[in-house]
Amino acid sequence: MPIPQTADTRQLSRTYMMRLINLIMEDRRPGETASRRLKQAGLMSCIYTMHLAGESVTVTKLCERVKAPRNVVVEIVKALESRGFLTYRTNLHDGGRGRVYVYSLTEKARALVTVVE
């Protein structure tokens, strides 16, 4: 499903990303570098784009999209969960063996998309 490309959507996306980056960069956690926070902002950008397109967000899809190893993506996703931006549900994997985690934006993350006055 393509992302609607209206002026309003582009403006909301810019607003969302500016707010998200500010929140992540200002919320310094013990032992966390600026580089780690930038990686979180970058992955959230990808997750938000997938959300807008109606795609399901899984670690496998994120790895394919950002061309990063699974352990790197999992580490970033866990950090985003701890910040309260992501939540997950488990689904049965295709073929019925194993489970897959499907991530979605939390209310906290969706609330960043309000229009700036």
From TrEMBL:
Keywords: Plasmid. It comes from the Bacteria. This is Winged helix-turn-helix transcriptional regulator.
